[in-house]
Amino acid sequence: MTALTMLLRRPLRPLRGSGRTDVGVWPVVAGLVLIAVVFGSLNDRFLSAENLTNLALQMAATGTISLGIIMVVLLGEIDLSAGSVSGLAAVVMTILYVHHGWNPVFAIAVALAGAALIGLLHGWMFTRLGMPSFVVTLAGLIGWQGLMLYLLGSGGTINLPFDGFVAGLSDTWLPAWAAWLIAALVVAVRAADALLTRRLRRAAELPVGSGLGVALQVGGLAVALAAVVSVLSADRGVPLLLVIFATLVVALDLVLRHTVFGRHMYAVGGNAEAARRAGINVRRIRLIAFAAASTLAACGGILAASRLAAVNQSSGSSDTLLMAIAAAVIGGASLFGGRGRPYAALLGILVIQSITNGMLLLNVDSSVRYMVTAAVLAVAVAFDSVARRGRP
């Protein structure tokens, strides 16, 4: 081995060691800081309250779809139909609401229920028929998009009432006191979660991390939320879409880390055969994961329709699916399964939307934006692949 080869491999040793070294979300956080510094220095509008508020609105819909992607990625599978399902659910909701005069809440509930059935169908084809998830959801991508186009008909576009419930979701802003209250509740939940985890680990005679580390994490979260609320309140306020997305992230994270279902999800993703021998119903876990993925995709589609105040032939198409998958991977979810948290969707979509937003402010050509996003995604997967080599 040459000296040059040893020099090049040295920075990767911590990632390929015994599997105990986990850099966590720090590379993503460092990337966000770098993005803020670079684009902030190139364009003074990037870090303005108005632009950051627009950024928060832009990331909610795709970030919610990315949450669904994480559910199947945790199993080591993939869902290529998420974009089409999101568009189809938005169209179903809009037709029931606008054309048939349904109550918007009931229309949304039917759209979500339909998406859950689609996910169960995908899961059944995967678990019962033994079809690869790639093929099942690829067929779904094509088929559900075709159904969406059929429902839209020759018109191709259906507008939502600007003063209606659905469109109002993206035009609702929290007053400052409500935003600060929600931020305080999030910090309190995180602190209680950390204390409960430490108590349970002590009771099970498992290693417990230092209290200083937990205090720094909770303190860092409090500072970050305070900064977000302060900046967004300086413009129009904290958007309701961001609150909905953040609520889904926190709720899903608590479910995955503190319920039997969540532990089974990680077990199946880590080693399905070992999970089966341990008595876990692997088939049921996979069915639930696919159903949850499609339901969250539908939520994202409805949020996107709210922001656009319409549905059309491009709903859920274009680069929606690719950005959702990229966000999950960039945020830290492993494509090999068994590793990742819902916060990956939040961090990943923040990275992607920040890059896109910054380049748009600089009038960078779309071709360059795609190449930069591809490079960031490739680096994220490379880190994941290298880190995985040393894990048992």
Detail the topology: elements first, then pairings.
Blueprint: H1 3-9, H2 26-42, H3 49-73, H4 82-99, H5 104-127, H6 133-152, E1 157-159, H7 165-169, E2 173-174, H8 176-203, H9 211-233, E3 238-239, H10 240-258, H11 260-270, H12 272-277, H13 282-308, E4 310-312, H14 320-330, H15 343-361, H16 366-389
Antiparallel strand pairs: 1-4, 2-3
Helix pairs in contact: 2-15, 3-10, 3-13, 3-14, 3-15, 4-5, 4-6, 4-13, 5-6, 5-13, 8-9, 10-11, 11-13, 14-15, 14-16, 15-16
Offer a concise description of the structure.
By secondary structure, the chain is mainly α. Helices cover 72% and strands 3% of the residues.
Describe the 3D structure:
This protein is mainly α and 392 residues long. It has 16 helices and four strands. The protein has a two-stranded antiparallel ribbon. Helix 10 crosses helix 11.
From the alpha carbons, calculate the radius of gyration and give it in angstroms. 21 Å
* Count of helical regions: 16
- Helicity range of the residues? over 70%
What is the typical, i.e. mean, pLDDT?
Answer: 85
Beta strand count: 4
Assembly category: single chain
Distance between the termini: 25 Å
The SS-based structural class is: mainly alpha
The topology string of helices and strands comes to: HHHHHHEHEHHEHHHHEHHH
Tags for this model:
4 strands, two-stranded antiparallel sheet, two-stranded antiparallel ribbon, 72% helix, 16 helices, mainly alpha, 392 residues
